[in-house]
Amino acid sequence: MSAFHEQVGGDHYKDLDISPFEFIERNGLGYGVGNIIKYLCRYKTKGGGGIEDLEKARHYLDMLIEREKGE
Predict the structure, then answer these.
(1) d(Cα 41, Cα 39) in Å, to the nearest integer?
(2) 5 occurs within a structural domain
(3) What 3-state class would DSSP assign to 63?
(4) C-alpha distances in angstroms, 31 versus 6, 15, 47, 52, 67?
(5) What is the pLDDT of residue 54?
(6) Residue 9 confidence (pLDDT)
(7) Which residues of 36-45 are buried (b: 16+ CB within 10 A; e: fewer)?
(8) Range of the domain at 57
(9) Is residue 53 one of the residues assigned to a domain?
């Protein structure tokens, strides 16, 4: 079986048509944008209501905004 068809450490991506990793890689999105996508894709399926993943996505987005503004 291909590594692209299995997940280690949970099943929070199992219902997606394409894994965040594969989407990020195919589109050359880079680390920061990739993490935002990853956290947004899984927040509804993670324990605790997913708030922590939304906060992580927001943190990466805030860092990208600062970088783009040159701050």
Answers:
(1) 5
(2) no
(3) helix
(4) 21, 23, 24, 19, 13
(5) 95
(6) 56
(7) bbbbbbbbee
(8) 17-69
(9) yes
Which residues, 6 or more positions from 33, have their beta carbon under 8 angstroms from its beta carbon?
24, 60, 64
List, for residues 41-61, the tens digit of each pLDDT value: 989 887 777 899 999 999 999
Here the tokens at position 5 are 């068809």
Low-confidence ranges of the chain (pLDDT < 50): none
pLDDT of 11: 64
CA distance 24 to 39: 12
In a domain, 34, yes or no: yes
Which one-letter amino acid corresponds to residue 47? G
Which helix (H) or strand (E) segment is 55 a member of? Answer: helix 51-69
